[in-house]
Design a protein that fits this description.
CATH class: Mainly Beta
CATH architecture: Beta Barrel
CATH topology: OB fold (Dihydrolipoamide Acetyltransferase, E2P)
Strand content: 25-35%
Number of strands: 8
Helix content: 25-40%
Largest sheet: 5 strands, mixed, barrel
Distance between the termini: 66 Å
Number of helices: 5
Order of helices and strands: HEEEEHEEEHEHH
Radius of gyration: 22 Å
Length: about 170
C-alpha cells in the first residue's frame, strides 16, 4: 500500500474533480444549455406553429415554444395559419431563452425578436393557445382573453375549432 500524505490526497482529489468537469463539459453536459440560457439563433425551418429548427450559438436544435400550444398542421385552416404566423414573427434571426427540455428532447424556449416576445405575441394574435397544463403565467392568460374577446385567429368563429390538446387526443 502506498503511503500518501493528506495534502497530496487533496491535490489528487482536486485534480480528479477538474478532469471530471472537463469531461462533462466536452460531452455537452456543461452550462451551454442550462436553464434560462440566452442564445442567438438563425431560423432553419419552422415545423409548425409552436416548433422551429434553428442554429443557436452554432448548435442545431429543435425549439418548442414554451407556454403555448398552436393548432396542429392538419387542423384546417388554423394549423397552417399558425405556422405562417410563426414564420412571419421569427424572420431570419431571433433570440431564444431556454427553460428546459420536453419529453421528446426538444428545448423549451421563449423566443424574442428585439423586444417582442414571440410566444406571447402568437397567443395575443389568436394563433396559439396558452398551454395551461404547463403554463399559468398571467400575461399569457390575459393575452388569450384579449384574443378571445377580439375574436382574433382561432377565436374568429368562422370555422369550428378544437383546442390542439383535445384534437390530438381524438386523432388516430
Amino acid at each position: 500500500m502506498v503511503n500518501m500524505s493528506l495534502p497530496v490526497l487533496y491535490k489528487f482529489r482536486r485534480f480528479l474533480i477538474l478532469v471530471l468537469a472537463l469531461i462533462l463539459v466536452s460531452c455537452g453536459a456543461g452550462p451551454a444549455r442550462e436553464k434560462n440560457a440566452q442564445a442567438s439563433c438563425q431560423t432553419q425551418r419552422v415545423i409548425d406553429g409552436d416548433s422551429v429548427l434553428a442554429i443557436c450559438d452554432g448548435e442545431a436544435i429543435e425549439l418548442r415554444l414554451v407556454c403555448i400550444d398552436a393548432p396542429e398542421l392538419k387542423q384546417k385552416p388554423y394549423g397552417q395559419q399558425a405556422k405562417s404566423a410563426l414564420v412571419d414573427a421569427l424572420g431570419a434571426r431571433f433570440d431564444a431563452q431556454s427553460t428546459d427540455k420536453d419529453r421528446y428532447g426538444r428545448t423549451l424556449a421563449t423566443l424574442w425578436r428585439g423586444e417582442r416576445e414571440i410566444n406571447l405575441e402568437l397567443v395575443l394574435q389568436g394563433d396559439a393557445l396558452v398551454y395551461r397544463h404547463y403554463c399559468g403565467q398571467p400575461s399569457y392568460l390575459r393575452a388569450e382573453n384579449d384574443a378571445f374577446q377580439a375574436k382574433r385567429g382561432v377565436w374568429d368563429e368562422r370555422f369550428p375549432f378544437v383546442a390542439p390538446w383535445q384534437w390530438r387526443r381524438n386523432e388516430p
